[in-house]
Design a protein that fits this description.
By secondary structure, this protein is an alpha/beta fold. It folds into 4 domains: 85 residues, DnaA, N-terminal domain (GMP Synthetase, Chain A, domain 3, 2-Layer Sandwich); 158 residues, Rossmann fold (3-Layer(aba) Sandwich); 74 residues, Helicase, Ruva Protein, domain 3; 93 residues, Chromosomal Replication Initiator Protein Dnaa, Chain: A, CATH 1.10.1750.10. It contains 20 helices and 8 strands. Bound molecules: adenosine-5'-diphosphate and magnesium ion.
Length: 451
């Protein structure tokens, strides 16, 4: 493979694993200039980019390069000016635009709904037919049939797709006369925190009580956040009393959401509750075939069968495999083989880890404790920030293996011994303190959701 093609394929995979902003800032203008048996040389446009890529992405890039040339042990980085117009960039942009047109739809700023989620692209099987039937029934009788509608089930099984799909469908059916709003419970929490800090709780009322359909995703995360629960309770009542539709998703049924106020729990249980489970083999095959068609790609039956057999617990993971399949086909211009699929599937597990970045951890921890990310990483000595900071330090180390000085700099520009102390302390406390381990578990779930 020529350098240019090789680098293009590598970048296509890197792009999947870093944020769009980081990719554009640091990697877009990079170039592969030399390949030896054991080392390859990458040119970057300036010193800053070189240092950044070298310190942040070396491991990731090396891992991906080794998928192509297994003998490579090291990547060298050099600075080379005036590269922006090299031919590589041109071809890169094309691949990237093609990818974008398939994957990124614009979220409607009014409703927060993503038009990519439609009910027509939602495959129905025995695992989700009840939830689908209930959701569909709402479209024509908004607010009067199943209220609230509570959908629950594990990660990656189609809850978000289904509840956003209903939202989109309601808008179309009622020709935009019905006001729909979709939020994650994280966003709702952030809004409440913001309103309290800025003494603008009225804003919550006007934002959330003047809608006809309120859809709240992943409600389980409000458990234990008293102010947010209270605000949500009032919002819920205001809407419910006016026959407005409420649709909620959760990763577990109301009775299993920890530390949820009783009055909210009983509200959630008062309407229709439906679960989504693991899809059976036939449903998985149907989903794979649909998605492949949507992406304008093709896949032979043997490959479809292999994916359906190997991945049974998450439709999101199936989707991840299919995205890679499309990438391979674009990069090599030939159909993937069963062996390719085996390899892609074995890589998926590793990818999940590298998807996480430090800011997601900071966001998750601050969201969990209802403080702002700025306070979490700031210098204030206020007592309420101590625990969140220690947890953030611990997780940066535990989940991402970041260095102590890096963490120290990221969280409050402290001395790195503070980080070592926090890490050791939490490690020790974890054994005896079950509320701490519960907290960490929940925060990790939050982080993984963002990945
Ligand atoms: P959850 O919210 O339960 O974690 P998502 O709704 O985000 O899961 O689904 C994960 C991915 O799988 C999405 O890309 C979604 O479009 C797809 N998906 C899930 N269920 C179905 C289905 N029944 N038919 C088609 N696609 C599905
Ligand atoms: Mg979801």
């Amino acid at each position: 493979m020529r350098n240019e093609e090789l680098w293009q394929s590598v970048l296509s995979e890197v792009e999947l694993q870093v944020s769009r902003a980081n990719f554009l800032t640091w990697l877009k203008n990079s170039r592969l200039i030399k390949t030896d048996d054991e080392a390859i040389t990458i040119a970057l446009p300036n010193h800053f980019a070189k240092e950044w890529v070298e310190s942040k992405y070396d491991k990731l890039i090396l891992g991906i390069v080794r998928n192509f040339i297994a003998s490579v042990k090291k990547i060298e980085y050099v600075v080379e000016g005036g590269m922006a117009k090299s031919p590589t960039q041109h071809t890169r942009t094309l691949v990237s635009e093609k990818q974008l047109s398939i994957e990124e739809f614009k979220v409607d700023p009014d409703t927060n709904l993503n038009p990519r989620y439609s009910l027509s692209s939602f495959v129905v099987g025995s695992s989700n037919e009840l939830a689908y039937a209930a959701a569909s029934a709402i479209i024509q009788s908004v607010g009067t049939k199943y209220n609230p509608l509570f959908i629950y089930g594990g990660v990656g099984l189609g809850k978000t797709h289904l509840i956003q799909g209903v939202g989109n469908e309601i808008k179309t059916f009622h020709k935009n006369k019905i006001k729909v709003k979709y939020v994650t419970s994280e966003k709702f929490t952030n809004d409440v925190v913001w309103a309290i800090r800025n003494k603008r709780t009225e804003d919550i009322k006007s934002a959330y009580r003047h809608v006809d359909v309120l859809i709240v995703d992943d409600i389980q995360f409000i458990g234990g956040k008293e102010k947010t629960e209270e605000e949500f309770f009032h919002t819920f009542n205001a809407l419910y009393e006016n026959n407005k539709q409420i649709i909620i998703s959760s990763d577990r049924p109301p009775k299993s959401i920890p530390i949820l106020e009783e009055r909210l729990r009983s509200r959630f249980e008062s309407g229709m509750i439906a679960d989504v489970g693991f899809p059976d083999y036939e449903t998985r095959v149907a989903i794979i075939k649909n998605k492949i068609q949507e992406k304008g790609a093709s896949l032979n039956d043997e490959c479809v069968d292999l994916i359906a057999k190997k991945i049974s617990k998450s439709i999101r993971e199936i989707e991840g495999v299919l995205n890679k399949v499309v990438f391979y086909q674009n990069a090599y211009q030939k159909p993937v083989s069963v062996a390719n699929i085996e390899k892609i599937i074995s890589e998926i597990g590793e990818k999940d880890r590298t998807n996480i970045n430090p800011n997601q951890i900071i966001k998750a921890v601050s969201g969990f404790f209802e403080i702002s990310p700025g306070d979490l990483t700031g210098k204030s000595r206020n007592k309420e920030f101590i625990e969140p900071r220690q947890i953030a330090m611990y997780l940066l180390r535990d989940m991402l293996d970041m260095s102590y000085p890096y963490i120290a700099n990221k969280i409050g520009k402290r001395d790195h011994t503070t980080v070592i102390y926090a890490y050791k302390k939490l490690n020790k406390d974890l054994d005896q303190n079950s509320s701490l381990s519960d907290k960490l578990k929940e925060i990790k779930e939050l982080v993984n959701k963002m990945g």
